[in-house]
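FYI - complex with 6-O-phosphono-beta-D-glucopyranose, inputs then prediction.
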Amino acid sequence: MNKPFPENFYWGGAVAANQCEGGYREGGKGESVCDHMTDGSRTAPRLYTNTLDPEKYYPSHNAIDFYHHYKEDIALFAEMGFKMFRLSINWSRIYPNGDDAQPNREGIEFYRNVFQELKKYGIEPLVTLHHYEVPYHLSDAYDGWFDRRTIDCFLRYCETVFTEYLGLVKYWLTFNEINSAQMGIGDPLSLGLRTADGAGKSFGAKATPEESTRRYQALHHQFVASAKAVQMAHRIDPAYRVGCMVAGGAFYPFTPNPDDVLKAQAEMRMNYFCGDVQVRGAYPYFTQRMFEELGVQIHTEPEDAETLRAGTVDFYTFSYYMSTCSTVDTDVEKANGNAVVGVKNPYIPSSDWGWQIDPKGLRFLLNELYGRYQLPIMIVENGLGAEDHLDADGHVHDQYRIAYLRDHIRQIREAIEDGVPVQAYTPWGCIDLVSLSTGEMRKRYGFIYVDLDDKGHGSFARSKKDSFDWYRKVIASNGTDLED
Ligand code: BG6
């Protein structure tokens, strides 16, 4: 037992442009859909507004100002020994409106500088092309991904970045948590769908057949775009490796009642539906019945099947935060979550935001996913969103975060022992950033504390938490020294 992590294992961390960059109108950047999301809290949902309301606070506008602090931040990642840094390119920085004839040179240069800075320290970038950053104009004028023309806009953007960053980037991800479209959280953010003013982000809300049809139609266009982007990347540089990114979740039957088992099986398909299309190149066998039950009817072009087949990904990546339970019983306590919502499991604890903490669920899911796809796997998000408190000297003693990450790393090691070829672990929000689900700063994931509150007040100063030194030792020992 205790097989070590492979020699070239990618330890690192992950962020997304809209949650860390800020500079939302600097350097020629256009507005993106996430720039239209207000702040929120554990109890008050974030709201989407078409017009930016000066009375409201939009956290992405300044975020943690990575736009101006990237050198300092990357130096801190290097000090921890990062081998990989996952970040997204904000599409609206490269094509401010999404359908512009020419890209924005300043935006291109910004990311070139970031990639060069990473290269200086030997940190491999893992670049997400689409992380809730659809240019707002595409949403407004085209209805986002519902319109097939958005595929071409996306491919023009891909061609620009694949060409510009030759020699600086090797690993790409097409769509962050592409399956979030299925969960009712994707309308404005992951699909760029035109959205009513004041609509909040809904979790697992029951959709009408019309709403589901819009989502799956838009998702189909993302599948086609992803497959074409994979082929394009390989054409531009055969060394490019392109992966998918799925919101992962383990679903356990709440009881041995066969109805609960069947329900858990159906909910596990949340992990497989998009993965099957992107890894196997075709919609899975259960699609027809699922569409019938949801009342979904989508339009596809005759050439789409061949495009999907020819554009399968090179590796599989996913986020993992929690497991949940499935049951047909309605008289049960519900569990919270970002992408994964379900029923509370009495055997495991929850975070302050109600997300169930289940390291063994990660081992379970790694085995399930590898068993199905037999592709190299990266865990590109994982972590504990928690409220941190500064001691009298201004330090954060985040033993709870260390315990969370340690337990998950142990289970990754178990999965490697099981035979799963895990290649990377990039915990989420390696530096504190804006929470996606609540828009708060107080929900912190980082090894690095950022002095900023929920309304964007603070000095933006960075400081190391206890977990910083701990993670540095973990990386230096290639995952063998997990103690404090
Ligand atoms: C994932 C997203 O769903 O979860 C991230 O890809 C997000 O963008 C992360 O930040 C954690 O969720 P939250 O709501 O705590 O920020």
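Residues 2 and 413 are 7 Å apart (CA to CA). The first helix runs from residue 17 to 20.
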